[in-house]
Specification:
756 residues, alpha/beta, seven-stranded mixed beta barrel, six-stranded mixed sheet, 18% strand, globular
Length: 756
Amino acid sequence: MAQIESTPSFVKAVYERMAANLKVVRHRLNRPLSLAEKIVYGHLDHPDQAEILRGKSYLELRPDRLAMQDATAQMALLQFMTSGLPEVAVPSTVHCDHLIQAEVGSSPDLARANTENKEVYDFLSSVCDKYGLGFWRPGSGIIHQVVLETYAFPGGLMIGTDSHTPNAGGLGMVAIGVGGADAVDVMAGLPWELKAPKLIGVKLTGAFRGWTSPKDVILKLAGILTVKGGTGAIVEYFGPGVDAISCTGMGTICNMGAEIGATTSLFPFNHRMADYLRATGRSEIAALAEGFCEHLRADEGCQYDQVVEIDLSTLEPHINGPFTPDLAWPLSKFAAAVKEKGYPEELKVGLIGSCTNSSYEDMERAASVARQALDHGVKAKSTFTITPGSEQIRATIERDGQMATFTAVGGTVLANACGPCIGQWKRHDIQKGERNSIITSFNRNFAARNDANPETCAFVASPEIVTAFALAGRLTFNPETDTLTGADGKAFKLAPPSGDSLPKKGYDPGQATYQAPPADRHRIEVKIDPESQRLQKLEPFKAWEGTDLADLRILIKAQGKCTTDHISAAGPWLRFRGHLDNISNNLLIGATNAFNGSVNRVKNLLAGIYDEVPKVARAYKAAAERGEMGGWVVIGDENYGEGSSREHAAMEPRHLGGRAIIVKSFARIHETNLKKQGMLPLTFADPADYDKLREDDRLAIQGLTTFAPGRPLTLVATHADGGEDRITLNHTFNEGQIAWFKAGSALNLMGGKAKK
């Protein structure tokens, strides 16, 4: 039987390997190490041989754990099944949290999800049973909350097929979001590759006051660093202010580090983590961490590439948005900004919960605000929804009364799942295209992310602030200075939120929702209906033809922000996450075409007409297969592929005949995902060259026959008027990644090695 649990003996073995590795690394580097370096270098496959240069070297690492959510697990497991291996090589789990659509409330929404997604859930359950993975059934909770409660431990290295995997940094774990192809490598027992991250240190001083909460640390930091400021770096928190933050509060901060592009974020081990481990039934692991603590904090005198200081004592509550998580407004300035910018002042919906803010402490503090309103006979003026992070949280807040408070104030408790945070929200109160405002305690607020309406102005704040705004029904309310009117007509002011970070009576585990694989796994058969519209066996991508690429067309020149939501939308498309051909019909339908300013409207140069992006891509693919052209490329702007780790955003262009994605800069996970699928993620050496490319250009990419690390390629753009531009393209491929490209994908290369 494959190991799944993070048992004390498992953690002890991890610590022993780390100590041995660090002894070698310390001798080689002969300098103080940060916490991130200790954990990352402590998991090197060959610590005696690895080149270790921040921001330059590619490290081969051995993760301790793997976690996958149901939307991304489908494609990852479909890929793993082609490896021919009998079981996964590392402890791995699948969590059913993404496919449950929020509409009415917890019980009916969960029942509907179990019916509508039965085929997918049965597939995931059977694959987990056959290959030795733990399976968390629908209703268990959100992957990151369950991992924090059950599997995370200080000093561990985990990867997960979700960009908010860094949530486990709240327990001192280096937890990194990846695409499914990376997960396949780890499940297959191969080393996992990561470019040695740079280090951003965030020094915290002081302690929270009033309405300020852990969420405000990351909202403030997002405003400082922006959505790309953490790219290629691990954010490491340190300083005396760390002890002022609960373990789950640290998780909130690390979780939303994904919004600044960070590889991951983490905190040093302290008594707040030990308290949480003991409260969640892991006392032995707490004791092991206390005995290993010298390796679970930074060395005195370690050096960071950048340091940011935040004084918690002077930090204001923040509200970020709309349309980007780094547009940060201090509470004292937000009302004026709403009026100045013309954001709709009426608040339609306030939503609390999600993987970012659904801990016991979050619910306690939000409920303390709601109780004050009830004491004055006031209910929420806006629609108010509550998403518990896990079955354990749901059961505990039901027992302790917070859920009753939320219901009494007019709230609707949703299923223990992602729901509106990822667009799984069947909203009825507005029409698509209607401009309106919502505020959430979630992490992302890209246009149309939550409700598929590009006119929804979505703002992000702490659960306490969201609750206060929902009570007032307007964005211009400031709970620090303004009053509400009670049922008796008298004005009253809300007191700052309060509450316990851990339940005094301990956690109630709730219903049993975990499924361990059976002992007789050999009898399990995984079936996929050939006629299924939701699951599809994968066919290998074609290997590189061995020549430079010529006669390429531009499918789309994406303008401005182009996230993985724009490239491969979620929401209703989640049902096709296991069917590559069907989900490819959403390719780039949310991106803005720079040539005409339209969304999902690009020119088919073969037919001379404008059409939807996926249809044009399919037309070009068919033409390339007939030998009439060489395929197509995408041209993009800054931080292309920001957002979710979804590898579908890389697999879809590959499936529909794409050859290269050429942009000003990439988000880390998406660039790696493209490489894994045999695509060419390339960047303009001069970002201004983006402007030289025209709608009807014919392109060639030269230099592939001598493709090598550090050697630029050349893009030749031939214009319709006969003119030509030769543009230098940079890349970050190393030798191993070039082998992926030549084989057609990383999976092709792995499969080829397995057959020898």
